[in-house]
């Protein structure tokens, strides 16, 4: 079943059951606490928090999501992308636990002829929160899932809250057993690659207090209106329904890998390293196009930096596979052609997206040309001196003179078996920043133009990369 059909069926199923179909919101969250939208519930947050009265009692959507904290997993696990689409159904004080569980089971297991996804019920494993006896008894008694396929998980996996006082509650997740070729049996509690999580049902039923830690907070009582928030990964379901081994082999990502193959001559399935690179390219180029489509432009801070890092990582992986010419035009073209079926605005915006992407590629290739020899020489000298740690001042020089961000230096050094003295690098960065500040202050007192210094300080500040992983919470 194609991704487009999975999406259509999802929306139709819930629409037929009275849910209002809400189009995906932009990836740029209308929410100061978030850099990018990581989950389907984000556009509905004000309703869940009781800040705004919802215009409908139930809703459904397929939301574009970006989770930059998952970047390290990309291409290595079979099921994490930086961009993915979260199918969701939501209830604002309407149906609760039993309703959500019944809908999920019906949609997943009813036959494809009847409009469902036709999954084999015997392959579905359920997790519930430690003390959620209510959910477990619904699964067992009302749905008929045998006790041995229901497992209990703790707060980290199966309890949801927004990290602040307000609504919270237990989750129940539906996992699909992909069979012994994915490793040991024993259920999702022991093997999450074999028993892949596909759908998370969040039961918002309590009000929490502040507490002292992230997972340690008091439950103050029941919410006046209980809500449902669910999220199913479209790419994960596609992977199962298309009978492929990982999400990069599904219809919308496979074609991007194929374009990367045409550009590099590297075929998928020949070696582990290049397979990871092909997946990284497919994922990152898609994420880049979706971000540019929603108005993000490459830059040194915040969202712009997320985009820059992801796009440059894709280009680097293409070069690791042997590409020597620009590659972005072809890759962007493929992404737009496949994603444009579900997001037609990509087609109408094609020219602008290409222009932004090509400019970033040109800037990066210039940086690479300038810095790569310097880095290689420094690595050679480090090794010749019998060390495996590149000195901090080399990393600093690469950054300061050649515009190499530290993570690029780290990655390229690691490829040659060398680590980097990051503390030394950061010390030098800080010294430079302090100097710039002091100079700026002195000049300011003399009423001189400080803009040049501000530029230095901004550049230096951008390499702390804090915006990259902070400001991101996983909302579902
Ligand atoms: P996992 O444990 O596999 O990392 P999660 O518990 O972080 O997933 P949720 O926050 O519960 O995921 O999100 C709801 C659903 O979205 C998941 O059940 C999964 O199907 C999908 N999903 C989450 N993260 C990703 C990702 N990085 N790439 C693709 N799909 C994802
Ligand atoms: Mg996760
Ligand atoms: Mg999980
Ligand atoms: Mg989950």
Automatic annotation (TrEMBL):
Localization terms from the record: Cytoplasm
Role played: Catalyzes the attachment of alanine to tRNA(Ala) in a two-step reaction: alanine is first activated by ATP to form Ala-AMP and then transferred to the acceptor end of tRNA(Ala). Also edits incorrectly charged Ser-tRNA(Ala) and Gly-tRNA(Ala) via its editing domain.
Natural source organism: Streptacidiphilus cavernicola
Entry protein name: Alanine--tRNA ligase
Keywords: Aminoacyl-tRNA synthetase, ATP-binding, Coiled coil, Cytoplasm, Ligase, Metal-binding, Nucleotide-binding, Protein biosynthesis, RNA-binding, tRNA-binding, Zinc
Protein EC: 6.1.1.7
Record's catalysed reaction(s): tRNA(Ala) + L-alanine + ATP = L-alanyl-tRNA(Ala) + AMP + diphosphate
Cofactor note: Binds 1 zinc ion per subunit.
UniProt KW Flavoprotein keyword: no
Residues covered by the Alanyl-transfer RNA synthetases family profile domain: 1-476
Residues of the full protein shown: 1 to 476 of 888
Entry cofactors: Zn(2+)
Domain note: Consists of three domains; the N-terminal catalytic domain, the editing domain and the C-terminal C-Ala domain. The editing domain removes incorrectly charged amino acids, while the C-Ala domain, along with tRNA(Ala), serves as a bridge to cooperatively bring together the editing and aminoacylation centers thus stimulating deacylation of misacylated tRNAs.
Family to which this protein belongs: Belongs to the class-II aminoacyl-tRNA synthetase family.
């Amino acid at each position: 079943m194609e991704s487009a059909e999975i999406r259509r069926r999802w929306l139709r199923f819930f629409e037929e059951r009275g849910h209002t179909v809400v189009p995906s919101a932009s990836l740029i969250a209308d929410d100061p606490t978030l850099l990018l939208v990581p989950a389907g519930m984000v556009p509905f947050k004000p309703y869940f928090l009781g800040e705004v009265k919802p215009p409908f009692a139930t809703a459904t959507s397929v939301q574009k999501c970006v989770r930059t904290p998952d970047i390290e997993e990309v291409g290595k696990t079979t099921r994490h992308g930086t961009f993915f689409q979260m199918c969701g159904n939501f209830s604002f004080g309407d149906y609760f636990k039993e309703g959500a569980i019944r809908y999920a089971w019906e949609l997943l297991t009813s036959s494809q002829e009847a409009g469902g996804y036709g999954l084999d019920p015997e392959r579905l494993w359920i997790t519930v929160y430690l003390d959620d006896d209510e959910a477990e008894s619904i699964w067992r008694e009302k749905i008929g899932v045998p006790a041995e396929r229901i497992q209990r998980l703790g707060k980290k996996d199966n309890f949801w809250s927004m990290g602040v006082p307000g609504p919270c509650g237990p989750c129940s997740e539906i996992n699909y057993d992909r069979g012994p070729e994915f490793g040991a049996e024993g259920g999702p509690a022991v093997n999450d690659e074999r028993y892949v999580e596909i759908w998370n049902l969040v039961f918002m039923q309590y009000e929490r207090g502040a507490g002292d830690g992230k997972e340690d907070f008091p439950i103050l009582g029941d919410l006046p209106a209980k809500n449902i928030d669910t999220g199913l990964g479209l790419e994960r379901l596609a992977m199962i329904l298309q009978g492929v081994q990982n999400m990069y082999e599904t219809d919308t990502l496979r074609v991007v890998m194929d374009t990367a193959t045409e550009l590099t001559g590297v075929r998928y399935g020949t070696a582990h390293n290049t397979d990871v690179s092909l997946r990284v390219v497919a994922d990152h180029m898609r994420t880049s196009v979706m971000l540019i489509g929603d108005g993000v432009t490459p830059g040194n801070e915040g969202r712009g930096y997320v985009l820059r890092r992801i796009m440059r990582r894709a280009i680097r992986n293409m070069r690791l596979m042997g590409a020597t010419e620009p590659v972005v035009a072809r890759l962007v073209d493929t992404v737009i052609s496949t994603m444009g079926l579900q997001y037609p605005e990509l087609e109408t915006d094609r020219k602008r997206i290409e222009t932004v992407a090509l400019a970033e590629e040109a800037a990066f290739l210039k940086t690479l040309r300038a810095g790569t020899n310097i880095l290689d020489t420094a690595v050679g000298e480090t090794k010749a001196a019998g060390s495996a740690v590149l000195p901090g001042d080399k990393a600093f020089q690469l950054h300061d003179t050649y515009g190499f961000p530290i993570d690029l230096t780290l990655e390229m050094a690691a490829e040659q078996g060398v680590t980097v003295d990051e503390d030394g690098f950061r010390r030098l960065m800080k010294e430079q920043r302090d100097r710039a500040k002091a100079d700026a202050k002195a000049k300011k007192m003399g009423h001189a133009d400080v803009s040049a210094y501000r530029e230095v300080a901004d550049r230096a500040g951008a390499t702390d990369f804090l915006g990259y992983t902070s400001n991101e919470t996983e909302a579902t």
